[in-house]
Amino acid sequence: MVIITLVFCQVPMGDIRQSLLPRDVLSAAKELLYHLDIYICNLVQSGRQPPQVDAKTLELVEEFILHAPKDRNTPGRRMSALQELQLLEIMCSCFQEQSRDTVRQLMFSALFSLQGNQADESRMALLGKLVSMAVAVGRNPILECAATWLQRTHRVYCVRLAQVLVDDYCSMVPGSVPTLQNIHGASPRFCCQFITAVTTLYDLTSEELTPPLELLQMIVSWIQDDPRLVLITFLNTPLSGSQPISSLDITPLGGLMRWCVKAPLAYRREKKQALTNGSAENEQEAGPLLSALHLSVLQVFMLLPNILNEKGLFGRLALLQLESLAALTSDLSRLLDQADKHTHTSSADTQALSQLTLDRLAQALQVAMANGALLCSREDLRAICSRLPHNNLLQLVLSGPVMYYNNIHTPPLAFSPHAAHSPIASHPTHPAHTPHTPLATHPSSHPQYPGQPFITGMPFPFRPSH
């Protein structure tokens, strides 16, 4: 192997291309993968920091694996469906047999990092098929590499990959959901990033962007089994270096909170379509699932104080961004207006759903603030919620004491997903405040929520209403 490595490193890239041209399309791709593995192993062994694949190698990948034409006058070569399947199997074996994670990550990056050119569509198509196969046959190294890809890539492409997996395992092949569900045990990092991507994709703005029931069931079961799952990316992200604003959020908490809060109105909005499509049962089943998810999200918030304190981040890093919260309340305002005009439900039902939505928002805001996931002033919160109709629980949160932290004047950390837009950055001169007092108990006019103080560190005392 050492001799082969040395020989390869001395061969000019142009000569390698000449040796690949006479081969058939599958043989050329297989040979290039072999050489790419050797090249990257040598690159890592050289100790060069950071190790970076050169442009000529990336051009070979585009030409012989992604089949992008070398120039306009040269037609691109195409694989048959069988040849493509064989290539995917070869790639699965290649990543599985390579024991060094650094080499695997560099190879994955060389194959699938987006370059902003015409080959990107071929990259995305091949990536979706490779990750889908890795899920099916349990190739954990590929899932680990895909988790890193999801963390570093623009969210537009991340949701495209998530859509491929949802289509493959929740829509096209009945009964295949358990296969996708197994990624929880195979690669928790990928599972966390997948949840973040699908909550970004399905924003409940239309029927098409409402999560399928099978997907919802799967995510609820994952988080119920392991609430810390949604924090894995955050827990494993180095504190140096900033997270690009265009990337996925560092946790799926914001997206999950959006699902829980918007769901009562969003699913009711689709009732007419559900009845037309004969899927009214799905709407009914989604209610308890989303109630369970809401409870799970609140319980994840309750885990944060210890985690943030251990990292020295309590009061310094907001896992829920103020901009996302503003977008959520804007969507809620529109949905509530639509609900008032809804002709398929009684006014009493509509009012109950509206109050459930606002109750969930209030609960999420209070628990998030109390546990350090949301950092903002009371004035900010009032401004964001100003367009929402009156709700007793929400009014209590907006008017009650807001939690401040002794180090709230500390600037946000560089790796904060949106540090420049952080609510802390918007208010850098806040003085330190004395410790907060517990929020007043819920008024007796809401018997479904017994009077309970929201106090950080106490077990969550009730289940959200269904």
Automatic annotation (TrEMBL):
Short name of any one Pfam family annotated for the protein: INTS15
Biased composition (Low complexity): 419-447
Disordered, as annotated region: 419-450
Membrane-crossing segments per the record: none
Top-level taxonomic group: Eukaryota
Annotated signal peptide: none
Name of protein: DUF4507 domain containing protein
Originating species: Scophthalmus maximus (Turbot)
Taxonomic path: Eukaryota, Metazoa, Chordata, Craniata, Vertebrata
